[in-house]
Amino acid sequence: xxxxxxxxxxxxxxxxxxxxxxxxxxxxxxxxxxxxxxxxxxxxxxxxxxxxxxxxxxxxxxxxxxxxxxxxxxxxxxxxxxxxxxxxxxxxxxxxxxxxxxxxxxxxxxxxxxxxxxxxxxxxxxxxxxxxxxxxxxxxxxxxxxxxxxxxxxxxxxxxxxxxxxxxxxxxxxxxxxxxxxxxxxxxxxxxxxxxxxxxxxxxxxxxxxxxxxxxxxxxxxxxxxxxxxxxxxxxxxxxxxxxxxxxxxxxxxxxxxxxxxxxxxxxxxxxxxxxxxxxxxxxxxxxxxxxxxxxxxxxxxxxxxxxxxxxxxxxxxxxxxxxxxxxxxxxxxxxxxxxxxxxxxxxxxxxxxxxxxxxxxxxxxxxxxxxxxxxxxxxxxxxxxxxxxxxxxxxxxxxxxxxxxxxxxxxxxxxxxxxxxxxxxxxxxxxxxxxxxxxxxxxxxxxxxxxxxxxxxxxx
Length: 461
Known about the structure:
The protein is of the alpha+beta class. The chain has 16 helices and seven strands.
């Protein structure tokens, strides 16, 4: 494969994965068989010093992204390196290569046009967790859309990628969003070049809407200027179409009637959450992803009124099953992955053991509390034994044995004997070396040792 340009020493360009207004993403290859994804920013930097504003902004924003990776999150792509290309002096960030389809691909044939409720809840939780992790550190993604969230076929996690917009200057962002941004996912304020934490919340709501309905609220017809302007105007003024009606019309025809009925029982709290995310005014949305994620966690422990159906008892049981399944997904998928990633870390990125223990303890406690409240609120507490929770804890702790080999515990007497034997061995080695060199003192000492040994054996006889 011919190389379009050189990225950096030791980093081979294997060709473009996709291109866009925020830059292009290339498949890279490190020495050996390590593959990565390289985000290339289209504006070159000619002076690598702090006097250059663009270079300074690039370094500052990359530092934020690296901080995001200090505590690994299984739902955020890892940043491997950054710099300027050898030819063209284009800024780039190198990320891990996630093997698997993105959300937009999972909505195309042969897949159903929309996600099942179980999978929507999993995406809602994991994507909110990823955004909350970024917002906690002051990092705005700015380009959240369904093809920037990938499904990792090896871990089963959904991963947020492509932080290209986050490392652009305000001027670059404004130009990029106006000319080539994904208008179907952009918040109203982004059309003016603003990028707020609440802008990510709006785009998050669009993604959930798309997964539930099978399409975004306002579908772009072509990519011409007139079509883009029409979508922008809709985001600014138009009412968001009813997501349940769109979901009903886009249910796969080959699904059984029972499954169709079940998949229309969207939890009331989830509908309200999406509605709040898609408010026109930023101040009427969740303030940031931390508040969003907390709202999801709180709703998981409450029984809201289900969407009206013909069989109330079945609907209540379905909503209960969905809530409980989400808790299980969190415990088994996200927390286990977090533990593996934390214990796989290597210096200098590795965290102190006590920090790891504290972080994991907080996560486990949070989810177990939610599970207990949920069970109690639904009168299910008497059906769940303590052993069930202990089993979940065991699953979380299992990966630790792979990261830390078993310790060998020695008693003090055995330790002293081993140290003494080591001392004798060291003394004998030095003595024999000096005898070999015909050291007079060593020869006399050796003769003395031999005499003592002979006398001991003579006494035994």
